[in-house]
Known about the structure:
By secondary structure, the chain is mainly α.
Amino acid sequence: MVSRIPIITPIRLAIGSTSTPSHSSSSSQPLTRILKCSFSSTAAASSTTTKQRQNYRDPYAEKQAQQRRIANLSRQELLKKQRAEELGDPIRGITTPFVESFDTAIPLPAVPSADKVSPNTTAPSSDDAPPSPANARENEHLNHFLSPSELEQSLQFSRMLTEPLPSPERAVADPHREETDARIHEIEHQNAKEAILRIVNLANTNSKGRLRTNIQRCIDAFGRHRTDEYLKPRPSVAVPRDPKPRAGADTGSSEVQIAILTAKIRILANEYEGSSRNDKVNKRNLRLLLHRRQKLLRYLQRRERGGERWQNLISTLGLTEGTWKGQIAV
């Protein structure tokens, strides 16, 4: 006898119903497993997942994005170089003749005045070149704390002490011998004078002597006992008071301290860039001096508000914005 074929449960009943008829329990199990398998009737183009659509990029659009990225990076590098050039070197700034003379401590040659200028050359006007350490005559400095007047007086006194005395008895005096003694004395005096001039010359001094001379030059160049004669003070809202007479040279103003720090920074920078590259003690001292000068420059800029004192200091020492703006890293 032929076996009876069981009735297949409809799809809706197989999915919606929780119980299956007893007569189809044995044959509907494979169909239920088949109906529970995931399948989609949508098109293949719209069957991608969100992650797949994010990973897929148009080659043309990707090439354009890469070109824009390269252009942006090159533009950033160009702007970075331009900003660095505008800020300048935070250690040295711009080398000026006054700063360059710190290496030898020899004063700058004086700029010829209007009455000494030849007719073929035009004299600088007061508006174009105001009085400043760059075009003013500096005092001559010597080694061992000597001044030219003291040296000249000492040489004249030594010449008088060593001059041979004439014979008291003129009747028996030998004029030829006196003339010879005077000539020998003059030669010996000139030799001694040349030796003393070599000793007191700044070209033969050590670094300590050059630093002492540079400090005195900074006091003479930027001290307010000198600059008050040709630089106008900053505009003030308060009622001006009668200035008190100074007891001596100005050694504590911000301009003088900045100039002295610049001289010391140049010495340490020359040592640090030379053979003493791994000298960590001088590297720390250089960093301290740079930050101290940066604080003074910020104070003076805020105090003077771009006045003549500020412009004179910046132009003479060649200080750029990098010396007082931003972070200084050594």
